[in-house]
Write a structure and sequence with these properties.
The chain is built from 9 helices and 9 strands. With 237 residues, the chain is of the alpha/beta class. It has a domain of 162 residues: Carbamate kinase (3-Layer(aba) Sandwich), CATH 3.40.1160.10. The longest helix is centred in the middle third of the chain and has 25 residues. The protein binds uridine-5'-diphosphate.
C-alpha cells in the first residue's frame, strides 16, 4: 500500500513524456518506463485515471500558425491523444496491469466513449482508466481535460509531471535565485502570476478545490515516492 491520503489520483501524462528524447512520436523505451511506474502504483492499491496529451504528435496551434483552420488542427490534435492512449493502454497491459481506454471524441470501434459512470465503474473494477480526446472540444488543452476528468472521476488529487521538480517563484532555468515552493495555495499561484497550467485548467481546479501536485517527470523516487512525499514536488491547495 502507498502511505498517502490519496486513494484515487488523476495523472496527466503529456505527449512530451512519451516522446522521450525524440522530438516527435512515441519512444518505446519511455512508454515502457511510464507504464511500469503506473502499474507499480496500481499494484499498491492506488486507483488511477490518466489524461493523455498529444503534443508529441500534433498541436492545433501549429496549424493555425500556418494559416490553417484551428478547429481542424485541434481535431487532429485530439486524434493524436487517441494514438497515445492506445499505446499506453497496451503498454500497461504488457507490464501486467489492467487498462481501459475511453475517448471523449466518439469512435466506438476503437475506444469506449467517455461517460462519467462508465469510467468510474472501470476504475472501481480495478482498471487504470485512460482518457483520450481531451475535453472533446477544440480550443482546449489536455491540461483542462485533466482538471475536468479529475473532478468528474472524484479523484483526490491531480498529478502533473513537468521538466522541473515543482512550482518556482521564477523560471529556475534563467534565474538561479528562483525559490521552489513545497506547498502553495491556488489563490497564491494566481496572485503571484505563477504558471502551472493554462488559465482554464487552473481556474477549474481552484473553483473545485482540487489539489495539484507538480513534480519532475524523471524524479528518482518515481510516482510512488512523489505520492508519499519523498520525491521533491510542490503541493497546491
Ligand atoms: N486538444 C483539443 N481539445 C482538448 C484537448 C486537446 O483540441 O480538449 C488538441 C489541441 O490541438 C492540442 C492537442 O490536442 O494542441 C494536444 O493536446 P495538448 O497540447 O494538451 O498535449 P500535451 O501538451 O499535453 O502533450
Amino acid at each position: 500500500m502507498v502511505k498517502s491520503d490519496y486513494k484515487r489520483i488523476l495523472l496527466k501524462v503529456s505527449g512530451e513524456a512519451l516522446a522521450g528524447d525524440q522530438s516527435y512520436g512515441i519512444s518505446s523505451g519511455f512508454l515502457d518506463k511510464v507504464a511500469k511506474q503506473i502499474v507499480d502504483l496500481a499494484n499498491r492499491g492506488v486507483e488511477i485515471g490518466i489524461v493523455i496529451g498529444g503534443g508529441n504528435i500534433f498541436r492545433g496551434m501549429a496549424v493555425a500558425a500556418k494559416g490553417g483552420d484551428r478547429v481542424i488542427g485541434d481535431h487532429m490534435g485530439m486524434l493524436g491523444t487517441v494514438i497515445n492512449a492506445l499505446a499506453l493502454g497496451d503498454a500497461i497491459r504488457r507490464n501486467g496491469g489492467r487498462s481501459h481506454v475511453f475517448s471523449s471524441v466518439s469512435m466506438p470501434s476503437i475506444a469506449d466513449t467517455f461517460t462519467q459512470r462508465g469510467a468510474i465503474a472501470a476504475i472501481e473494477g480495478g482498471s487504470v482508466v485512460i482518457c483520450a480526446g481531451g475535453t472533446g472540444n477544440p480550443f482546449f488543452t489536455t491540461d483542462t481535460a485533466a482538471a475536468l476528468k479529475a473532478i468528474e472521476l472524484r479523484c483526490d488529487v491531480l498529478l502533473k509531471g513537468t521538466k522541473v521538480d515543482g512550482v518556482y517563484s521564477d523560471d529556475p532555468a534563467t534565474n538561479p535565485d528562483a525559490q521552489r515552493f513545497e506547498q502553495i495555495s491556488h489563490d497564491d499561484v494566481i496572485s503571484r502570476n505563477l504558471r502551472v497550467m493554462d488559465t482554464a485548467a487552473f481556474a477549474l481546479a481552484r473553483d473545485n478545490a482540487l489539489p495539484i501536485i507538480v513534480y519532475a517527470l524523471d524524479v528518482k523516487e518515481g510516482l510512488v515516492g512523489v505520492l508519499e512525499g519523498e520525491g521533491k514536488s510542490t503541493r497546491i491547495g
